[in-house]
Amino acid sequence: MIGFIGLGNLGSAISKRLASQGHEVMVWNRTQGKATALGFPVASSPKALMEACDTVLLCLFDSPAVKAVLTMKEGLLEGMKEGKTLIDLSTNHFEAVLEFHSLVTQVGAAYLECPVFGSVVPASKGEVTLVASGEEKTFLTCKPLLESFGKNIFFLPEAGSASKMKLINNLCLGSFMATLAECTALGEACGIEKKELLGILGVGGGQSLVLAAKTQKLIDEDFSPHFSNAAINKDLHCLQDLAYSLNRPLYSASVTKELYSKMKMLGRGEEDFSSIYRLFK
Fold first, then answer.
1. CATH of the domain at 9
2. Last residue of a domain, one of 159, 188, 209
3. How many domains does the chain have?
4. Which of 37, 114, 184, 198 is a good FRET partner for 145, with 20 to 30 A between their CA atoms?
């Protein structure tokens, strides 16, 4: 039995993918309706889930949410002991994740920091990229499970490295999306039909996984969330903290972060991050 906590858009996709690959899945979620809607057995608490499962996966919005589930009354730490493993798929703050390594290992359990690179559609197909940090023995033990939903899997042994890599990756992601959105709006202002414009960008300078994933959303202006403006905004704030800790400036990242901050301020934080197109249009 595999435990799963965090049934947002990405977590729901991963948990369903695990089940489709033959894994028995038990869940817990703060919002009870999300847990029961998936049809999986539902644990009464994180502690009960940890006691019932040797391995639990977390897929939460941010580090405060992870810490809360670990340390709350009837939280995960109360159910942990030697032989238990926590795989944290959340995009964590690079400093907070070090505390999670420590909290879990202090009670004799194993912690694998393993943020997900990719969103709902690749997760449902088993095609996300995963970067893990922690003990190599833990990584090798968990790798067959990770292969159930991950296509490209990397291991960076030093704690915190995977979280830092995820933040760096999301600078590319957010910057590409903002540039593609601005190009789309500019092309339309020139009288070029949007579908034709995106087709040309897709084989020209805009060719990327980001455009391939978001072309239809831009055409339809369907911004139902796969990866939200609020999430990329949060990640770029963490990236700024990382640069500050290294005494390094950030140039393009600063502008990109402010664009997504503007989307959040406009009340569009829960839309897919491709909706930044609205800002330029």
1. 3.40.50.720
2. 159
3. 2
4. 37
Considering the entire predicted model, what is its pTM? 0.94
Rounded to 5°, angle at Cα 134 from 161 and 46 = 110
Answer whether 116's CB lies under 8 Å from 124's CB: no
Summarised one tens digit per residue, pLDDT across range 140-176 is: 999 999 999 999 999 999 999 999 999 999 999 999 9
**Are 132 and 12 found together in one domain?**
yes
For 20, half-sphere exposure in the C-beta direction (CA atoms, 13 angstrom radius) is: 14
- The owner of tokens 């911004």 is 223
Whether residues 183 and 243 share a domain: the answer is: yes
Domain of residue 263: give its range: 163-280
pLDDT digits (tens, 9 = 90+) for 63-86: 999 999 999 999 999 999 999 999
Of 116, 132, 159, the residue at which a domain comes to its end is: 159
Q: pLDDT confidence of 30, banded at 50, 70, 90?
A: confident
